[in-house]
Amino acid sequence: MEEIRLYLLWSAFFIALTILFLRRRSSKDLPLPPGPRPLPVLGNLLELGQNPHRSLARLARIHGPVMSLKIGSIHTIVISSPSSAKEVLKTKEHFISGRQVPDVIQSLRHHEFSMVWSSQNQSWRYLRTLVKTHLFNTQSLDATQPLRRRKIHELVAYIRGKNGEAVHIGLAAFSTVLNLISTTFLSIDMIDLKYESAQELKDLIWGLMEEAGKPNLSDFFPFLAPMDLQGRRRRSAVYYNKLYDFLDKMVENRLTTTAEEGRRTNPDILDVLLQLSQEDNSKLSRRIIKCLLLVINHII
């Protein structure tokens, strides 16, 4: 079965390469910055190597701080100097706001409701204002300073409690940051540092982040996306569904608690979002709230 799947994968890939190779180039090339000469079909994929960050630094020394690469069939502009980055991200930000959405993020149409990936329409501006007003204002950040200090102390205590055992610092730090954010916005710790058996949620989040971070043929050759040759979109859809189920339970529990006990004295972000969603002509749907919570918790 595995051999058949591998055969079909490579067959589809080579058919796609043939189609790309036979396509006639546009009579007028785009006015792109300098860059290495791309290979037919693959573009500059092979030049990225095992360490893309080092390869890009090496290429920038040759072609300058603003260079163009062709990653598969996608033209990519690489910025590698502070002055160029400032000009692009601050002065000309509107020209690059419509970036390509990775295929994994399009699972279950997540990108259509996400503040990070949706286009700059009226809904996006509303969410941006909401986040700026309720999440990242000075008062909210100052109020969470004791919480940040407490979470750091918990991390230190966890490491000391290992008594010489090996500690995966990356996962421990990831769990601490996630708990800090979830406690701030949801009033719960999403991950228990002490109990490995309670790490299903962490594995779920980590798995989704890995799927989004790995190279995907569908991103390099968008016409292959409907086939999902590597299965990344299918696996991501499973992760998203489980995360949405988790957040649905949280929302339902909060609504039930609020109905029985009334509004809390110190509302968190979930309380604020639910209150706003119940106002007349509110633009906040349950789906948008869940997507916003995923973004808040650095889940994508």
Describe it.
The protein is mainly α and about 300 residues long. The protein has two domains: about 60 residues, no CATH class; about 180 residues, Cytochrome p450 (Orthogonal Bundle). The protein is built from 14 helices and two strands. A two-stranded antiparallel ribbon has the order 1-2. A hairpin with a 2-residue loop joins strand 1 and strand 2. Helix 12 packs across helix 14. About 0% of the residues have low confidence.
Strand and helix map with partners:
Blueprint: H1 2-22, H2 45-48, H3 52-63, E1 66-71, E2 74-79, H4 82-91, H5 110-113, H6 122-134, H7 138-143, H8 145-160, H9 169-186, H10 200-213, H11 217-220, H12 232-261, H13 269-277, H14 286-296
Antiparallel strand pairs: 1-2
Helix pairs in contact: 8-9, 10-12, 12-14
> Spatial order of the strands in the main sheet?
1-2
CATH class of the largest domain, please? Mainly Alpha
Which segments are poorly predicted (pLDDT under 50) over 5 or more consecutive residues?
Answer: 24-28
* Alpha-beta classification: mainly alpha
Mean pLDDT: 79
Beta fraction: under 5%
- Helical amount among residues, as a percent range? 55-70%
Envelope shape: globular
CATH architecture of the largest domain: Orthogonal Bundle
The topology string of helices and strands comes to HHHEEHHHHHHHHHHH
> Total number of helical segments?
14
What number of domains? 2
Report on the biggest sheet: 2 strands, antiparallel
What is the CATH homology-level superfamily of the largest domain?
Cytochrome P450
Distance between the termini: 33 Å
Computed CA radius of gyration, to the nearest angstrom: 23 Å
